[in-house]
Amino acid sequence: MISKLFNSLEKTRRSIAESFNILQKNKVSIETLDNLETTLLSADIGNDTTTEIINLIKNSSGDNYIQYVKEYMLSVLESNKIEMQPLPFIKLIVGVNGTGKTTTAAKLAHHYKLMGNDVVLVAADTYRAAALDQLEVWSNRIDVRLISNQSAKDPSSVIYDGLNASNSEGSQIVIIDTAGRLHNNKNLMLELEKMKRIILENFKNYSLGTIVTIDSTLGQNSLHQAKAFLSYININSAVLTKMDGTAKGGIVFGLSKELNIPIEFLGVGENIEDLEKFDYNNYINSLFNIPDA
């Protein structure tokens, strides 16, 4: 069965395959390398990774450079391993407006519930009523408890109350949806620091993981956004959202190589089950036209 990831990378895969075919047919030259470089940059692979790939081909002997390129790309992604969180744990979801935080929160809750965990959703987006409405629909659909407070203005107080309730009931996993915030809004970014402080000071029995949602269609702009978040709060992993056919997908290399942020999940559609655990090998195979069995 071909995965949704394989299908979502069709456009990128086609352009990369064409560039490598031209390279093999016409041999390595300034022109063919320039063509490949343009293709890789257009796929959001990033300057650093693209430069390394071009240099690798220049310095390789024979025509087996595709295998060398695949091994190098795999090494970039494997350089940042996901640290497994011990139960019970918290996933604090952060990101800019429109990157799919609320949908991702529901998908994560569904993912962990299917694994047999007691999961709680906390609606800490106190700025957008639609986010609460959306989470209520999802929580009812997947039968996961939702903790919220429509009258609260301070998201940290909602988090405190939510974790108190979760803790008293012995819930294993708490997914916290936060408000979208512009990465250049200092006050809102400082609010994230407060949220983290509340959690670490009062709920030490939970391990905390901060996960950032990255819109895969925005390319290098997503790197600038993630970098801004890193200035205020530690980020443990990323969810690459909107991997549904329009994404280029190369942003994973920049996140890993430039920001040391590992990819944990991919959002590959709008349905609740459209969340895939990120697999380095499958991702590289998808880029080089090798479907999963």
Report on this structure.
The protein has twelve helices and eight strands. An eight-stranded mixed sheet has the order 3-2-4-1-5-6-7-8, sandwiched between helices. It is an alpha/beta fold. The protein has a domain at 89-235: Rossmann fold. The N and C termini lie close together (6 Å). It has helices spanning 4-8, 10-26, 30-42, 47-59, 65-78, 101-114, 129-142, 155-169, 186-202, 220-230, 251-257, 280-287; strands spanning 89-94, 119-124, 145-147, 173-178, 207-215, 237-241, 263-267, 275-277. The radius of gyration is 20 Å and the shape is elongated. Helix content is 51%, strand content 15%. The model has no long low-confidence stretch (mean pLDDT 87).
